[in-house]
Design a protein that fits this description.
Distance between the termini: 16 Å
CATH topology: TIM Barrel
Shape: globular
Strand content: 5-15%
Number of helices: 10
Mean pLDDT: 95
CATH superfamily: Aldolase class I
Order of helices and strands: EHEHEHEHHEHHEHEHEH
Number of domains: 1
Helix content: 25-40%
Length: 248
């Protein structure tokens, strides 16, 4: 994931059926008519990955929303990085706060999953972010720095990946940090990434996520060290997602 262009990635979460693929076709048609200055990716439920790859063509990268650290085994209901790759995915979201909080995923597990993604040929998007309680206690930078240091395996050095900063309290709430707060954390994330993996990752994109919408995308994407966006609900509709893409 090169920093020369921003990456706008949509996370559909547990939304979308076959009928939803019409939104992808609308998106791709619009992008074909007016190529954006950024990279575009969509991460749908696993049931739609292969079909979305066929519909998206070359204009939109398709990824998964999670993967198991193991390559195979008796893990009913789980999916491996190799399975995502086999379905046509090129990237995968890992360590999203909904996984960390709802499923008890630790930094160590996220790191193991990132290593598995790399081994399968997928580019990980590793998520970090503080809760409202941590933010109000003045610990946002401390918490996020700790997550970066423990969630990024050393194998990422020199490889294709991204980090996504998503303040937990801003996801799906309509709330967003100030631009100054976003810049502060993104700079802290960059410093931790360099400390962890070396200067070679100085261009690796750091995405911002958390209530990104067409009307605030441009100002957020203009903040120093913001290398793109990880978009939730606004990525489900082509028109809304296009508004964010155009903001890049």
């Amino acid at each position: 994931m090169k920093q020369s262009v921003k990456l706008i990635a949509g996370n559909w979460k547990m939304n979308g059926l076959g009928a939803s693929l019409g939104e992808v076709e609308t998106l791709c048609a619009a992008l074909a008519d007016d190529r954006p200055a950024c990279r575009v990716a969509l991460c749908p439920p696993a049931t739609l990955i292969e079909r979305m790859v066929r519909r998206a063509g070359q204009g939109v990268e398709i990824g998964g929303q999670d993967c198991r650290a193991e390559t195979h085994g008796a893990f009913t209901g789980d999916i491996s990085a190799q399975m995502l790759k086999d379905a046509g995915a090129t990237l995968v979201i890992l360590g999203h706060s909904e996984r960390r909080q709802g499923y008890g995923e630790t930094d160590g597990l996220v790191s193991a999953k990132a290593g598995a993604a790399l081994a399968a040929g997928l580019a990980p998007i590793v998520c970090v972010g503080e809760t409202l309680q941590q933010r109000e206690a003045g610990r946002a930078v401390e918490v996020v720095r700790s997550q970066v240091m423990a969630s990024l395996p050393l194998a990422l050095a020199g490889r294709d990946f991204a980090v996504a900063y998503e303040p937990v309290w801003a996801i799906g709430t309509g709330l967003t940090p100030t631009l100054t707060q976003i810049e502060e954390v993104h700079r802290a994330v960059r410093a931790a990434m360099i400390e962890r993996l070396g200067l070679g990752i100085a261009a690796t994109p750091i995405l911002y996520g958390g209530s990104v919408k067409p009307d605030n995308a441009a100002e957020i994407l203009a903040v120093p060290e913001v290398g793109g966006a990880l978009v939730g609900g606004a990525s489900l509709k082509a028109g809304d997602f296009l508004g964010i893409i155009r903001g890049a």
